[in-house]
Design a protein that fits this description.
The chain is mainly alpha-helical. It has 12 helices and 2 strands.
């Protein structure tokens, strides 16, 4: 009798746990409803007055995006279609927010799968910059060139021009980081001028994405693409990921 009672209790407890788990897990319909609410909020934010606090508002919208982007369970079901809507609002209020351009390049082209709109947003933002303002503005051009090269039609010729401009902007500075960036952009531009389909340049571009990646999926994609081009990626003793270039590539 006690054994039977214990078995019944165990079954009921397991059933209760299943019900609680099911109740705690949002359904696809709930995720889609949340997505529609977020879309409406974004439409509201486009015309919301900021009373002169544009940069602060841009920071706040970016934080909302990070929450949206980081909700992996929801993104698996409903995708990343609102990604560029967030960035559009951020750049509307702070087009010189140069630090976000690496994330815009990867999340817009890779996750939202819309490199054309990504490029358009970058172009609009960079139009509000000068070589000196914001500091190291050339980094936005570098990320734009990478997006053009890897994801846009006729990307080699587009990227060649953008890398050339990035080199010019980087040459304004005399710090080591900028000198390295200028040399890198010059080399990319000169190689593309000779060979718009250069595998060496594409490995270099995927390495830019690899080094700026903050999520495992983008890292894996970059490594996969580098290896597909004949290169490889090794991990150093201090944990850095370093590409090796295909020896027979031009």
């Amino acid at each position: 009798m006690l054994v039977s009672f214990a078995a019944v209790v165990t079954i009921q407890r397991d059933r209760l746990t299943q019900l609680q788990t099911a109740a705690a897990e949002p359904t696809l319909a709930e995720f889609e409803a949340d997505l529609e609410q977020e879309r409406l909020r974004l439409e509201l934010w486009r015309s919301l007055p900021t009373f002169g606090f544009d940069n602060l508002f841009a920071d706040w919208v970016l934080l909302q995006f990070f929450q949206y982007f980081g909700d992996e369970e929801a993104r698996k079901l409903t995708g990343y279609e609102l990604t560029l809507d967030y960035y559009e609002i951020v750049l509307q209020h702070n087009p010189r927010f140069v630090e976000i351009y690496p994330f815009l390049a990867t999340s817009g082209a890779i996750y939202a799968v819309d490199p054309q709109r990504t490029d358009k947003l970058m172009t609009q933002g960079i139009a509000q910059m000068t070589p000196e303002v914001p500091h190291h503005a050339y980094t936005a051009l570098q990320n734009k060139a990478v997006n053009e090269l890897l994801f846009l039609p006729d990307g080699g010729s587009r990227a060649q021009v953008t890398f050339e401009q990035a080199a010019e902007w980087a040459s304004v500075y005399d710090d080591d980081l900028s000198k390295t960036a200028a040399d890198f952009a010059t080399g990319m531009s000169q190689t593309l001028a000779l060979n718009p389909d250069s595998r060496l340049v594409r490995v270099g571009a995927w390495n830019v994405i690899l080094q700026s990646a903050r999520d495992e999926q983008t890292q894996i994609l970059a490594i996969t693409q580098i290896r597909a081009l004949g290169g490889d990626v090794i991990e150093t003793e201090d944990g850095r990921l370093v590409p090796t270039f295909p020896p027979d590539a031009e």
